[in-house]
């Protein structure tokens, strides 16, 4: 396993983040302050602060102003 080439990367969660049931967040992703991730979403990219995302892969559904 040491030679598999896998490198772990941290997941960074901001303040007041809501994550729905069954969500998968890939390594190296940052979720900004006040963001919401809908149930069963797969987050493959960074989520900006205040955004609401959902789907597979997760896409922006709403952005707070």
What can you tell me about this protein's structure?
This protein is mostly beta strands and 65 residues long. It is 0% helix and 32% strand. The strands form three sheets. It has a four-stranded mixed β-sheet, with no helix packed on it. The chain has a two-stranded parallel ribbon with strand order 1-4. It has a two-stranded parallel sheet with strand order 3-6. The mean pLDDT is 92.
Strand order of the largest sheet: 2-5-7-8
SSE sequence, one letter per element: EEEEEEEE
The unreliable regions are none
Mean pLDDT: 92
How widely separated are the two ends?
Answer: 45 Å
How would you describe the shape?
A: globular
Tell me the fraction of residues in β-strands, as a range: 25-35%
The main pleated sheet reads as:
4 strands, mixed
C-alpha Rg (nearest Å):
13 Å
Number of helices: 0
Label the structural class. Answer: mainly beta
Number of strands: 8
Secondary-structure map:
Blueprint (H helix, E strand, L loop, with lengths): L11 E2 L4 E2 L4 E2 L4 E2 L4 E2 L4 E2 L7 E4 L4 E5 L2
Parallel strand pairs: 1-4, 2-5, 3-6, 5-7
Antiparallel strand pairs: 7-8
């Amino acid at each position: 396993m040491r030679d598999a080439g896998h490198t772990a990367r941290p997941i960074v969660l901001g303040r007041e983040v809501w994550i729905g049931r069954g969500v998968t967040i890939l390594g190296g992703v940052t979720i900004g302050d006040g963001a919401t991730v809908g149930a069963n979403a797969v987050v493959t990219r960074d989520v900006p602060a205040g955004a609401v995302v959902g789907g597979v892969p997760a896409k922006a559904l709403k952005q707070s102003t």
